[in-house]
């Protein structure tokens, strides 16, 4: 029977020695000005910090180079172009967020760990062992306003490799914007004088219209009528929550594909599979509504498209809604079709309608009861970011979930221990539900294997 993920192995323990956090400011003076965030940027559902991790092997050709020094120096140069990141957020009396471009800088930590990449083994995926040591949570640094917008820790390893972990204030950028910044940073580390893609602010493009008008249905913000019933609502404060990563390689995807009589996108297959297995694992009553939100990068949905280099949040979360009974009782193709249809909802008009809704309703937050969200990182594979030490072994989410929302997962490019290229999804669930989820996933693959 096909396996959904390797059995969790004991996490290697190691010690990290850190220097005191410091501020890295732009290499030269930058404009001191106030820049408003868009209504998409400063919605309540993005007011948290998102962690990311990048893992690099030793590179013999860089033996004379110290990754900490190379990366810190390149960071200062990159902040000249992305100078809003070196500022601080302020909140107006109407709760609107503004970037005060003070040039103070971002938090940077230099560290060393007494471990090699080989000793970490197959732990190079969420949940990372000792992550709190790889990205030290500087006291009071997780506030949204009046604190640095980026926290970065570069940890040298005994083998000559290193791990870079960072945390970004999500109101500043989405995944595409963050990867754009990281690519510029890597280019500066390689000796470039300026980024190949110039950063574009232009947050007014995603401000609410005047007057604002909600023209689309937004199921992602819709309360279910029975929200007093909390089954299927997960929080990271639950003591019983566990995090596991699940690998979808060529054989797993091929197995799912055979369940659908026509061709469909890999994203649709994986997302539909996740939704069904997750719903069954939580034992949600058949008559209850369940929701799958799909994070859509809407940059190309505009006419003309948003400017190349736009690094603000340009994402929407259109949602498919059905009952648990219909989702789990219908053929697999039913869920696949729901996912396929919902992706197309994030049009230019939809984005304007979201901004207007957020302005009218007071920066609403997406509803998480019996809900999941999937974000696809394949379009801007962060493993390709090269600071001089080659491509990353792993680059992507550090922990799974998104801020306070455990029901969020990412489809992240990944090469497993067997050398297979595939995708990994980090999933949070209560322990017993996690066991059921894993069995449901294996059951879908096993059904196909046994029927061949």
From TrEMBL:
<dbReference type="InterPro" id="IPR023213">
    <property type="entry name" value="CAT-like_dom_sf"/>
</dbReference>
<dbReference type="GO" id="GO:0016747">
    <property type="term" value="F:acyltransferase activity, transferring groups other than amino-acyl groups"/>
</dbReference>
<dbReference type="InterPro" id="IPR050898">
    <property type="entry name" value="Plant_acyltransferase"/>
</dbReference>
<protein>
    <recommendedName>
        <fullName>Benzyl alcohol O-benzoyltransferase</fullName>
    </recommendedName>
</protein>
<keyword id="KW-0808">Transferase</keyword>
<comment type="similarity">
    <text>Belongs to the plant acyltransferase family.</text>
</comment>
<dbReference type="Pfam" id="PF02458">
    <property type="entry name" value="Transferase"/>
</dbReference>
<keyword id="KW-0012">Acyltransferase</keyword>
């Amino acid at each position: 029977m096909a396996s959904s993920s390797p059995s969790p192995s004991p996490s290697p323990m190691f010690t990290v020695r850190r220097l005191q956090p410091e501020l890295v400011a732009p290499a030269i003076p930058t404009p001191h000005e106030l820049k408003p965030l868009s209504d998409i940027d400063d919605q309540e559902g993005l007011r948290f910090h998102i962690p990311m991790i990048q893992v690099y092997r030793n590179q013999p050709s860089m033996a004379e180079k110290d990754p900490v020094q190379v990366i810190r120096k390149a960071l200062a140069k990159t902040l000249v172009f992305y100078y809003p990141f070196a500022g601080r957020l302020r909140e107006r009396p109407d709760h609107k967020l503004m970037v005060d471009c003070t040039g103070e800088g971002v938090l940077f930590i230099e560290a060393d760990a007494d471990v090699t990449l080989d000793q970490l083994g197959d732990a190079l995926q969420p949940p990372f062992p000792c992550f709190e040591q790889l990205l030290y949570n500087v006291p009071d640094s997780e506030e949204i306003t009046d604190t640095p917008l980026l926290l970065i820790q570069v940890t040298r390893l005994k083998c000559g490799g290193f791990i870079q972990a960072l945390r970004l204030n999500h109101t500043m950028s989405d995944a595409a914007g963050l990867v754009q910044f990281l690519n510029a940073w890597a280019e500066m580390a390689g000796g470039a004088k300026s980024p190949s893609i110039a950063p574009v602010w232009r947050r007014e493009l995603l401000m609410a219209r005047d007057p604002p008008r909600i023209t689309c249905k937004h199921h992602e913000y819709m309360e279910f009528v029975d929200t007093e019933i909390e089954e299927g609502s997960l929080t990271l404060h639950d003591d019983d929550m566990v995090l596991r990563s699940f690998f979808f390689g060529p054989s797993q995807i091929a197995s799912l594909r055979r369940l659908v009589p026509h061709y469909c996108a890999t994203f649709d297959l994986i997302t539909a599979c996740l939704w069904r297995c997750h719903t069954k694992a939580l034992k949600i009553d058949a008559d209850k509504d369940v929701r799958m939100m799909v994070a859509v990068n809407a940059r190309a949905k505009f006419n003309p498209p948003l400017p190349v280099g736009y690094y603000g949040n340009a994402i929407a979360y259109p949602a498919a809604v059905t009952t648990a009974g219909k989702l789990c009782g219908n053929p697999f193709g039913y869920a696949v079709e729901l996912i396929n249809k919902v992706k197309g909802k994030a049009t230019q008009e939809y984005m304007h309608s979201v901004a207007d809704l957020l302005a009218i309703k007071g920066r609403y937050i997406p509803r998480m009861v019996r809900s999941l969200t999937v974000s696809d990182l394949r379009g801007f594979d962060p493993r390709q970011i090269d600071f001089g030490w080659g491509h990353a072994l792993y680059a992507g989410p550090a922990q799974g979930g998104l801020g306070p929302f455990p029901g969020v997962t990412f489809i992240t490019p990944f090469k497993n221990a067997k050398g297979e290229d595939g995708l990994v999804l980090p999933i949070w669930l209560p322990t017993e539900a996690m066991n059921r989820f894993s069995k449901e996933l294996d059951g879908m693959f096993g059904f196909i294997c046994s029927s061949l």
